[in-house]
């Protein structure tokens, strides 16, 4: 994997870049649609590629390990072939998912023992095991196994956890170095900065992670309930330590406004379930604000879903029609809203990139943040 | 509306034809995908048009009347514009739906009083009212308001009901003649033959309907639980009376085998929820038999869903992948299976048409019936 920094905004830390892997190039800043269980919910792979057009998507190790399982994925020749997606894939390490299981998991130095949310069966994730699983999945970018701390988090717990995450990282690096990719394309490991919302811990962690010398670095443990300002403060501080010449991935973030603010702080990569999850609840993101399409006010509004036409659905269907689909709970409503929201997120990233290249990112961002906070 | 009979199979009563309306031509035999509530479940209008490619789809008066309601549809400029579908639409009359409400409806000479399945509110469907609703929906083909009798049905009830359906038909014809289409395209009324599974009643009804001189005729009250042989016997008898030079529409039928058998008896048009409903339950129809994709045997079968490639999904995704989507209950599974099944149904109709034109329908049909009855 290589990363080329193409432009930096003169009035912020925003960067435009290009990552190159065996599955092609990823223009940054990038938002990665979440394909938890080998599918971006409600969206065909062809639509994802041709309409939404991300250079990379994300899969979830925890979910894929449980179903279809690594045996099936190996037989299929990896996740790319299994789901018919020939661009880049990043897999998270399962750290966040097992952390979410709360009562049904036990974290020890060796790893995390957890109970499957499906059948209650017991499983153990270790740093080594999770590297092996991600080898079998065949992701282009593999995430280190970490503990994602909750918010708020006791300082002592956060510190202890951070150190364990660092020890786990060493084990991940060792395992990756001892093993080979299975499907003929390279895989690269991104370590994850932790440290909750404590500046000194974030600093220590960022230094530790920077020293690993990975091809890209991630910031985890944010967007777990803390106020936006705390998130931005942490991102800013961590980015001042992480190497300039490597892509920075802020995990699990966020709203369109969160994306632009973090781009301004030097983040290059994002993922979040928000565009698809909110879509399924009838919430649409647009450049002028957000819409609750279930609202009666759209009942007889026959204008296009979005005149900006990020994807074909935006002008193929009207607001009144989409509102009808939600009011009668039709599948097509979920499909349309998901495509729209993802199309908007990817458009926002392409637009941000162009503004960075043009040197006008900062003022554009401030206007967009204002617009996008409006309820339509 | 015009109907041109282009070919008749020398060894059966199967016909190939062409219907022409203001929304274009309909090549027969045709299967009409069911778009109950202004959407064919799980299928985008673009996929419907470009991949499945039916010349006509069906909407349900009962459902559209309740939601979004005729006010919204009128403001939208009719159902075609509301849902963005520029080919033909046929609407049923709501007769079948109100009949299905059983306990929540009361049938009288004037019409049917029923309670909405949504909020329990009371509504009245009369022949005149249903014509007005279908004018507002703007369907190209409007169905007469009828009573669909259950199976089995007491002879006296079937006879009384049939006569009422005939009287209702007269009221429908009168109302249609007194009113005009609202959106600049013509609308034509199809009357419906009833008479349960009684040959003499079916004969009387077919004669009554034939005398109306409509541009097309329908056969209702079948596929409600009777054995296939009784259905075929009724269709055959009715078709011997209905005019040769008008299209014949067998309502609510059926399996792929039912379609071919009824085509052999001279039926030109079909509709059924089966391809989409069964798709959502994981049942796939193919030219070689049917598949329960949830079955564990497909878990590691990485072959294409269907090598015949009726639509792009058939070769874009594998059986193992589709099985995975069903096992984790992902939306995309429903979407893929729906497109596949509809693609197959429409392919079957196009193939039947070509065989009729070639004069080889009968032997082809017998082989296909054998194949399609196989469980794969």
TrEMBL record, chains A, B:
In residue numbers, the region (RNA binding) covers 252-258, 276-280
The protein's matches in HAMAP family, at most eight in alphabetical order, are given as: Q_tRNA_Tgt
Function of this protein? Catalyzes the base-exchange of a guanine (G) residue with the queuine precursor 7-aminomethyl-7-deazaguanine (PreQ1) at position 34 (anticodon wobble position) in tRNAs with GU(N) anticodons (tRNA-Asp, -Asn, -His and -Tyr). Catalysis occurs through a double-displacement mechanism. The nucleophile active site attacks the C1' of nucleotide 34 to detach the guanine base from the RNA, forming a covalent enzyme-RNA intermediate. The proton acceptor active site deprotonates the incoming PreQ1, allowing a nucleophilic attack on the C1' of the ribose to form the product.
> What is the E.C. number?
2.4.2.29
Any one cellular-component term (Gene Ontology): cytosol
Keywords assigned by UniProt, alphabetized: Glycosyltransferase, Queuosine biosynthesis, Transferase, tRNA processing
Q: Where is the tRNA-guanine(15) transglycosylase-like domain?
A: 12-372
Q: Which GO terms describe its biological process?
A: tRNA queuosine(34) biosynthetic process
User: Which reaction equation describes what this protein catalyses?
Assistant: 7-aminomethyl-7-carbaguanine + guanosine(34) in tRNA = 7-aminomethyl-7-carbaguanosine(34) in tRNA + guanine
Tell me which NCBIfam families the record gives. Q_tRNA_tgt, tgt_general
Q: Which residues bind substrate?
A: 92-96, 146, 194, 221
Which InterPro entries does UniProt cross-reference here? ArchSynthase1/Queuine_TRR, TGT, TGT-like_sf, tRNA_ribo_trans-like
In Pfam terms, one family for this protein is TGT
Nucleotide-binding found in the keyword field = no
Name listed for the protein in its UniProt record: Queuine tRNA-ribosyltransferase
Similarity section: Belongs to the queuine tRNA-ribosyltransferase family.
Species of provenance: Psychroflexus halocasei
Which pathway or pathways does this protein act in?
tRNA modification; tRNA-queuosine biosynthesis
What positions constitute the catalytic site?
92, 271
UniProt-listed SUPFAM superfamilies: tRNA-guanine transglycosylase
The entry describes its oligomerization and partners as: Homodimer. Within each dimer, one monomer is responsible for RNA recognition and catalysis, while the other monomer binds to the replacement base PreQ1.
Give the matching PANTHER family. QUEUINE TRNA-RIBOSYLTRANSFERASE
Q: Which GO terms describe its molecular function?
A: tRNA-guanosine(34) queuine transglycosylase activity
């Amino acid at each position: 994997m290589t990363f080329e920094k193409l432009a930096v905004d003169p009035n912020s830390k925003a960067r435009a870049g290009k990552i190159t892997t065996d599955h092609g190039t990823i223009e940054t800043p990038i938002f990665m649609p979440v394909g938890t269980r080998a599918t971006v919910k409600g969206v065909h792979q062809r639509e994802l590629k041709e309409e939404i057009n991300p250079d990379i998507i994300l899969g979830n190790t925890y979910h894929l390990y449980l179903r279809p399982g690594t045996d099936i994925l190996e037989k299929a020749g990896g996740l790319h072939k299994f789901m018919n997606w020939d661009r880049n894939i990043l897999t998270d390490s399962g750290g966040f998912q097992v952390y979410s299981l709360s009562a049904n998991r036990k974290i020890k130095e060796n790893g995390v023992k957890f109970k499957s949310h499906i059948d209650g069966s017991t499983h153990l994730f270790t740093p080594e095991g999770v590297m092996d699983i991600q080898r079998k999945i065949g992701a282009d970018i593999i995430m280190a196994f970490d503990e994602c701390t909750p918010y708020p988090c006791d300082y002592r717990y956060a510190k202890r956890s951070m150190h364990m995450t660092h020890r786990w990282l060493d084990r991940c690096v060792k395992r990756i170095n001892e093993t080979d990719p299975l499907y003929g394309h390279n895989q690269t490991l991104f370590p994850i900065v932790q440290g909750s919302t404590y500046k000194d811990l974030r600093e220590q962690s960022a230094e530790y992670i920077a020293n690993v010398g990975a091809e890209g670095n991630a910031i985890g443990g944010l967007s777990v309930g803390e106020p936006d300002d705390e998130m931005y403060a942490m991102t800013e501080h961590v980015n001042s330590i992480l190497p300039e010449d490597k892509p920075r991935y802020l995990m699990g973030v966020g709203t369109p406004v969160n994306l632009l603010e973090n781009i301004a702080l030097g983040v290059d990569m994002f993922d979040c379930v928000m565009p698809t999850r909110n879509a399924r609840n009838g919430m649409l993101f647009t450049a002028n604000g957000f819409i609750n399409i279930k609202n009666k006010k759209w009942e007889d509004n026959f204008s296009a879903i979005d005149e900006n036409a990020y994807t074909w659905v935006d002008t193929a269907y009207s607001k009144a029609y989409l509102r009808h689909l939600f009011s009668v709970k039709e599948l097509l409503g979920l499909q349309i809203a998901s495509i729209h929201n993802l199309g908007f997120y990817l458009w926002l990233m392409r637009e941000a990139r162009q503004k960075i290249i043009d040197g006008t990112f900062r003022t554009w961002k401030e206007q967009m943040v204002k617009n996008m906070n409006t309820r339509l």
